[in-house]
Structure prediction request, 101 residues.
Amino acid sequence: SRAQVLTECWGAGAGPDTQAAVRTDRYKYVEHYEDTSRAKVRTHSAGGEDVELYDLKKDPSEADNLLRVPDATLVRLGTTRADVESVRATLRTALTGLRAE
Prediction:
């Protein structure tokens, strides 16, 4: 079995946006792109990159984007901002590698 799975969506017009995601047994990481070339991650309306990270074991309904929740919520979920950023970096590298295959 694969340790990671890549999913991609190419949106057009009013349909879904262009995105790519990598999923492991524990996490899901999603990047939303400016256009179908996937050259640049879209800017989130609140500022920063439009990306998502979910801990699927603690949050199977994907309600808490770990990259956007306050630190108090991270504590409630049993993690820290440093842990979240480490997971993000690892999965971003994995996503880039899977897209290159």
Remarks:
- The radius of gyration is 14 Å.
